[in-house]
């Protein structure tokens, strides 16, 4: 059975300039079977078609929060109430698993300095490791995993592709290259314009997850909704890696 791992980010992975209000870089992965993803995609499209009359609207966390661009429609409180009820229902009820990795940049700089520039690659490695652990737990044969990441730029995508190829040839600290190859793991880069609903779900989960890492005791209703979706092992949340 084919599985997808849709990955999006929250925060800036650079270390040279630090935003004290958002000192975290987080990658969020949505791990979902191909069959279940078809359901999620269709339900997202129903929301889009009902409220906007077309499926080309792209759910973006910041625009939704700010009621910006297409989401200015949410200044209509009745439409806003309907939108959040339907969107939250999909987020809560549809089957998928979250695996996220957060880098606390202040602590990271204190340990490794600002010249280290492998934050994105490190976070990706963490997510891939835990995705393999999750797939192992399914005890299913013939699982294939495709990792889908939103394009960032030719230079950045090339560097990430090279990092991924190194993982395939060497493995990670906890997952051998044989285990990665057993799942036929491959990576592809998609443009935001391609309107990939899986990437949009990852985007919606990334921001509240990052806010939780920054202020775990602050009220965070959006994170409360997605918290049960994080990968667990023996009752312990294993799908949210915070480093260091």
Report on this model:
The protein has 244 residues and is α/β, with parallel strands linked by helices. The chain has a single domain (2-31, 91-243), classed as 2-Layer Sandwich (Nucleotidyltransferase, domain 5). Helix content is 48%, strand content 19%. It contains 9 helices and 8 strands. The chain has helices at residues 34-52, 61-66, 77-93, 105-112, 119-138, 154-170, 177-182, 197-214, 221-226; strands at residues 2-10, 24-33, 97-104, 144-150, 186-190, 232-233, 236-237, 240-243. The strands form 2 sheets. The chain has a 6-stranded mixed β-sheet with strand order 5-4-1-2-3-8, with helices on both faces. A two-stranded antiparallel sheet has the order 6-7. Helix 1 packs antiparallel against helix 3. The two termini are 35 Å apart. The mean pLDDT is 93. InterPro entries: DUF3800.
Main attributes?
single chain; 244 residues; alpha/beta; Nucleotidyltransferase, domain 5; 9 helices; DUF3800 domain-containing protein
Strand content: 15-25%
How many domain modules? 1
Extract low-pLDDT stretches. none
Helix content: 40-55%
Spell out the helices and strands N to C: EEHHHEHHEHHEHHEEE
Strand order of the largest sheet: 5-4-1-2-3-8
Average pLDDT score: 93
Under the CATH scheme, which class? Alpha Beta
The count of helical stretches stands at 9
CATH homologous superfamily placement? Ribonuclease H-like superfamily/Ribonuclease H
Tally of strands: 8
Radius of gyration: 18 Å
> What's the main sheet like?
6 strands, mixed
Q: How would you name the oligomeric state of the polypeptide chains in this document?
A: single chain
CATH topology label: Nucleotidyltransferase, domain 5
Task: Report how far the terminal alpha carbons are from each other.
Answer: 35 Å
Shape: globular
- The second-level CATH architecture is 2-Layer Sandwich
Name the structural class. alpha/beta
Organism: Algoriphagus aquimarinus
Protein name: DUF3800 domain-containing protein
InterPro entries: DUF3800
């Amino acid at each position: 059975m084919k599985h997808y791992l849709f990955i999006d980010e929250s925060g800036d992975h650079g270390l040279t300039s630090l935003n004290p209000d958002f000192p975290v870089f987080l990658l969020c992965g949505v791990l979902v079977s191909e069959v279940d993803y078809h359901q999620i995609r269709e339900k997202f499209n129903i929301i889009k078609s009902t409220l906007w009359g077309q499926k080309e609207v792209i759910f973006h966390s910041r625009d939704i929060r700010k009621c910006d661009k297409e989401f200015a429609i949410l200044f209509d409180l009745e439409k806003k109430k309907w939108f959040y009820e339907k969107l939250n229902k999909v987020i809560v009820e549809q089957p998928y698993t979250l695996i996220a990795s957060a880098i606390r940049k202040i602590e990271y700089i204190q340990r490794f300095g600002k010249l280290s520039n492998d934050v994105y690659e490190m976070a990706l490695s963490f997510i891939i490791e835990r995705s393999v652990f999750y797939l192992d737990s399914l005890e299913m044969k013939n699982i294939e995993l495709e990792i889908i990441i939103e394009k960032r730029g030719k230079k950045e995508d090339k560097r990430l592709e090279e990092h991924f190829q190194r993982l395939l040839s060497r493995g990670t600290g906890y997952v051998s290259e044989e285990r990665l190859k057993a799942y036929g793991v491959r990576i592809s880069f998609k443009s935001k314009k391609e309107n990939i609903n899986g990437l949009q779900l990852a985007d919606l989960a990334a921001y509240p997850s990052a806010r939780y890492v920054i202020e775990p005791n602050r009220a965070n209703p959006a994170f409360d909704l997605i918290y049960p979706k994080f990968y667990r092992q023996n009752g312990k949340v294993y799908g949210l890696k915070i480093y260091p």
